[in-house]
Amino acid sequence: MQTFTAYSTRASILVSISLSLLKVAVSVEGICSATSIFDADSNSYPLYWKVTNPTLSPSHLQDLPGFTRSVYKRDHALITPESHVFSPIPEWTNTLGAFLITPAMGSHFVMYLAKMEDNSRSGLPPYDVERFIFVLQGTVTLTNMSGISHKLTVDSFAYLPPNFEHSLKCDASATLAVFERRYASLENHVTEQIVASTEKQPLLETPGEVFELRKLLPTTAPYDFNIHIMDFQPGEFLNVKEVHYNQHGLLLLEGQGIYRLGDSWYPVQAGDAIWMAPFVPQWYAALGKTRTRYLLYKDVNRNPL
Ligand SMILES: *[C@@H]1O[C@H](CO)[C@@H](O)[C@H](O)[C@H]1NC(C)=O
User: Fold this and answer.
1) Considering the entire predicted model, what is its pTM?
2) Which of 147, 275, 284, 285 is deepest in the core (most CB within 10 A)?
3) Among 141, 142, 144, which residue has the most ligand 1 atoms within 8 Å of its CB, making it the best to mutate?
4) Which residues form the signal peptide (predicted)?
């Protein structure tokens, strides 16, 4: 009898503890949903809105001194928006840049965000350096040495060959993702200016994989890198656990999921940037309620020797 009473008292304490835990869980869930899931992924926001308006860590952690999801290791890095440091870009006017990947990490390319303000203008890349720009927010005007201009809006991109005179201008505000590398030239081959938009690129076959793939540059020999746009529906993941000689710079444009890099597993979301050195084991699974879209630099078409 005594045993039974003791047992039932313990049981009822357990029940009430579990209930109160449940209440906490429910209310925390309510807060998270309201701020980070429903708002951010609502269809009423412009394309790639999350990249320039990221969730700065879980809302209850963003004011915690010293907290960041950013990681820098020998063979990979995750650079999350709360770690971005913007400063004037040499040669550009009224433009702030955050260099997220540079050769100091081991890469042979740079990847940076350029925030162009009122009456801003780009500078030229160094000698023999090719440039790729992708518009994340706003509108820029690209003019080449023939004096011919293109208006580039969100989702548009341009490739500028090495030593190709051009300028990007912006009257209001625009945010660009920019990739640059020293061109690995091939005899009898030259690259050309390319201006297009992601939505106009055809979907490509991805044997053995479920994600949707678009390539923004030609796959022909002159081009020593390509930029892939990869889309995953929630729950979809890479089949191949890739390990390869190519290096990657990745910018998550939409959605959230888990990125595996080496032996580390990272929760990631729109706005996050990733550096992958050659041969780092890499794998992604999309989670959340909306598709993941990311943009990926990959060096191609050159002998690794
Ligand atoms: C300048 O841009 C126009 C339009 O895209 C293109 O036809 C022309 O070839 C470009 N000039 C050069 C020198 O590439």
Assistant:
1) 0.85
2) 275
3) 144
4) 1-27
